[in-house]
Design goal:
A hairpin with a 7-residue loop joins strand 6 and strand 7. The strands form three sheets. Strands 2-3-4-11-5-6-7 form a seven-stranded mixed beta sheet, with helices on both faces. It has a three-stranded antiparallel beta sheet with strand order 9-8-10, with no helix packed on it. The chain is built from ten helices and twelve strands. 39% of the residues lie in helices and 16% in strands. By secondary structure, it is of the alpha+beta class. It has helices at residues 6-19, 24-39, 49-59, 87-105, 122-130, 186-195, 235-250, 283-298, 314-326, 332-348; strands at residues 3-4, 69-74, 77-81, 107-115, 133-140, 162-167, 175-180, 204-205, 211-212, 225-226, 268-276, 328-329. It folds into three domains: 1-63 and 331-361, Malate/L-lactate/L-sulpholactate dehydrogenase, four-helix barrel (Hypothetical Oxidoreductase Yiak, Chain: A, domain 1, Orthogonal Bundle); 66-175 and 231-278, Malate/L-lactate/L-sulpholactate dehydrogenase, NADPH binding domain (Ribosomal Protein S8, Chain: A, domain 1), CATH 3.30.1370.60; 184-226, 2-Layer Sandwich (Wheat Germ Agglutinin (Isolectin 2), domain 1). The N and C termini lie close together (8 Å).
């Protein structure tokens, strides 16, 4: 696999978006988000999305420079319309509004509709944790993105419906739970497909409902489906997915799953909650409790096949350290697609010269 440093990938992604007419600040925010997702070990939401976002700009699904429209606002909340803006920019602004309001009201909630792909949701609860708050974010596809079968079914009915919690931990990293309510997000299936790998058992069924390890089956015609989180206890992931649609789809008015075709530009719905820890007690006491709990949980004797216990958020922390030192590995197909974008941009725009960074191996 080609390996590129995080700094070089950040500069490359920023240059590509700028060449597509995105202003520098917006380009930098989106690029930083994508690179950080890859740094954290979540390649499905990382730089592989550059290719998708370029296509979305070309088709008009992403509207660079669009302004978020505030539909309603009160002391402890707001209803926002992203208006086709980059999902990362819209979600960053929405979470910042929730954080700012929570400083005055203890708890604040913001809904967002018509958002483009939001990237890694963990980024936004990390924002809350850094601000001394507990963050909660849920997202749905606004009725689109139906990749997931309900528990007991084999036809697609739901989006992967991720939900994310984050809180300060008193450690070097926040506690972050960032999960899809399906066994895996669609992006991870796509990552396996691009890497030419078979899927783990229990992720996918084909159109007949038979288990399959072939990622191509998700994109076949007729198509397979991702299974809900939980395996034989998939009713738990299924139930969580339904509640994510309640918060992100119905409450935001972005929409819930239903029959029919969906305009890709319709966008996703999100729900964001920020809780100011300091309004409930001393932040130092809170952090100490979480730190002590973390130490106690990690003191457990490892089970067979494990060398230690990792708490939520620790994997991402360690991945960032490793990838900053050793670079980020990219699937060959992803790298070639990025190279093609650069070649086309340099050919199309005489005044544009985007240089591909050197590979680390």
């Amino acid at each position: 696999m080609p390996t590129v440093t995080a700094t070089n990938l950040d500069q490359l992604a920023t240059s590509i978006f700028c060449a597509y007419g995105v202003d520098n600040a917006e380009s930098q925010l989106v690029a930083a988000h994508l690179v950080d997702a890859s740094l954290a070990g979540h390649d499905s939401h990382g730089v592989m999305r550059i290719v998708q976002y370029v296509q979305d700009i070309e088709t008009g699904s992403i509207v660079p420079g669009a302004k978020i429209h505030c539909l309603d606002e009160w002391a402890s909340g707001a209803v926002l319309d992203a208006k086709g803006l980059f999902g990362q920019v819209a979600c960053h602004d929405a979470m910042q509004i929730a954080i700012d309001k929570a400083r005055d009201t203890s708890i604040a909630a913001v809904t967002l509709r018509h958002s483009n792909h939001s990237g890694r949701l963990g980024t936004y609860v990390e924002m809350a944790a850094k601000a001394g708050m507990i963050g909660l974010v849920t997202a749905n596809g606004g009725g689109a993105g139906q990749w997931v079968a309900p528990f007991g079914g084999c036809e697609r009915r739901l989006s992967t419906n991720p939900l994310t919690f984050g809180a300060p931990s008193g450690k070097e990293f926040p506690i972050v739970v960032d999960i899809s309510t399906s066994i895996a997000p669609e992006g991870k299936v796509r990552h396996y497909l691009k890497a030419g790998k078979l899927l783990p058992d229990g992720w996918l069924v084909d159109a007949d409902g038979s288990p399959t390890n072939d990622p191509n089956q998700l994109y076949a015609n007729p198509a397979g489906a991702i299974l809900p989180l939980g395996g034989s206890s998939g009713h738990k992931g299924f139930g969580l997915a339904m509640m994510v649609d309640v918060l992100s789809g119905a409450l935001s008015a972005a929409g819930c799953p239903r029959p029919g075709d969906f305009d890709p530009a319709h966008g996703s719905g999100l729900f964001m909650l920020a809780i100011d820890i300091g309004r409930f007690g001393a932040p130092a006491d809170f952090a100490q409790q979480i730190s002590d709990m973390t130490d106690y949980v990690k003191s457990s004797k490892p089970a067979n096949g494990f060398d230690r216990v990792l708490v939520p958020g620790e994997f991402e922390h360690e991945q960032r350290q490793s990838h900053r030192q050793n670079g980020i590995d990219l699937p060959e197909q992803t790298w070639q697609e990025i190279c093609l974008i650069v070649k086309q941009l340099n050919h199309k725009h005489e005044n544009t010269t985007i240089r591909l960074p050197p590979l680390e191996n």
